[in-house]
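Researcher: I'm preparing a figure for a lab meeting and need a structural model of a single chain. I don't have an experimental structure, so a prediction will have to do for now. The sequence is pasted below. Please return the structure as tokens so I can convert it later.
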Amino acid sequence: MENRQALKLIEKIQKELFKENFEVSEIVTDLKKLREITLELNNPVVTKALRLAYEHIENNNGFFIGIPDDEPLDSKDNEIKANISDANNVESFDYFLSLLTDLAKKNNLLDLKEYNKAFLAF
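Model: Understood. Here is the structure written out token by token.
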């Protein structure tokens, strides 16, 4: 992502995570702002990922989606179960945010699509 304002928002959220400060209302507000900025990218995967992420965090008071696997599993059911965490998964949320910083990488978009599937399955 090349928008400086968007990158600053991502960096702000990541710094708070590093300080072990997972403030749901603040994160949701920042993700909503970030989504508004990214609407101009005309990238529906990113826009959807951000909306699903802030809705997930808002509804569950945490991020309960695991980091997508490198290798897709044979069964869709196994894949969905593998990507759902029992506890707030800050490491996965940080990874999700890092994907947004370089949308030129094909794998980043593929992982965002996997997050979207997991959000919808949750």
